Amino acid sequence: MNNAYDCLVVGCGLAGAVISRxxxxxxxxxxxxxxxxxHIGGNTYDxxxxxxxxxxxxxxxxxxxxxxxxxxxISRFTEWRDYSHEVLANLxxxxxxxxxxxxxxxxxxxxxxxxxxxxxxxxxxGMGTRLTIAQLRSETDPDLQELADFxxxxxxxxxxxxxxxxxxENIDPSxxxxxxxxxSQDNRYFQDEYQGMPSDGYTSLFxxxxxxxxxxxxxxxxxxxxxxxxxxxxxxxxxxxxxTIIYTGALDEFFNCKFGRLPYRTLDFLFETHDMTWYQPKxxxxxxxxxxxxxxxxxxxxxxQNICEKTTIMKEYPKAYAGTxxxxxxxxxxxxxxxxxxxxxxxxxxKFSNFYLLGRLAEYKYYNMDAIxxxxxxxADKIIYxxxxxx
Length: 391
What we know:
GO cellular component, one term: cytosol
Structural class: alpha+beta
GO molecular function, one term: UDP-galactopyranose mutase activity
Organism: Clostridium carboxidivorans P7
Number of strands: 22
CATH class of the domain at 7-40 and 210-259 and 332-389: Alpha Beta
CATH architecture of the domain at 7-40 and 210-259 and 332-389: 3-Layer(aba) Sandwich
Shape: globular
Distance between the termini: 20 Å
Radius of gyration: 23 Å
Oligomer: single chain
Protein name: UDP-galactopyranose mutase
Keywords: FAD, Flavoprotein, Isomerase
Strand order of the largest sheet: 8-7-18-19-20-17-21
């Protein structure tokens, strides 16, 4: 057996880093994290560009949660900048809040009509309700039908076609539900109790999270080149390994896509730095009726770097994931066929009692940051409990 490490963790994003810290700190396990990229932090990785602006390399990440355990845990490793994310939709040059809410309603329709629609929405659903566009479109009232058609055509339809390559009707309902219609005047994109940005950035947070003498890290390392499966045995660097393995990478790629590649959507990012203080009024503006990109993020809104005379923005261009070297699988395409394919890969891991799947790619699911932190904490609880129960 390879006795150098008690636990191998593949991937140094939130899932891998949190569970590594838990097992190293609570149980004193010697943990090796294997990371294919050249840096820690996974898709939350941020860095200062040549103009001194802190940017998120893989798209904007805003921390938000209602889970106190998650908030308290991650707060051990960072101070917080008080920040509530607000998003605008650009409708042919007119900016309205999204998710679509009562403020959006007042900006879209004349005063009399907006007030009439507001009264009907509050009467049917109640103030403060979150509803999906599908719920709104099921209404029989002609005024609410008109509102539903407007929101669907101007906020959801083209944006969804760009993001997923299909119309909303062909997307898993859980995906559409992530962008609700709000019967409120709250312009925040998230309504969670705890919201903010790490005051020194996500990379700094990860450096503190991984600062434990029992955690060792290898970057620029492809785990597939180190692991080998032979019948019912797992080998690491040519030697049998019977310790704990937590895998957070793409499961189909771990098995060399032997059943075919799992479908994802990926993103191309275009960064631009402009010689101006601000480019847009909020951190993110969605382009829901035109433009080939889905949204523009201006990072200074997120980070609070108000003294910078320049500003950096990022445009996002979604496309199908082909598995090339420069592409990253971001969003699993959830349907019955794809979940069936995933299940075939998952079944290959079931014979290994010490092999755990954790995270968006390993589980072929969508997780917000707080949800994956919670998943990692719960899995650590389970591993520790099971091991103590077997002592």
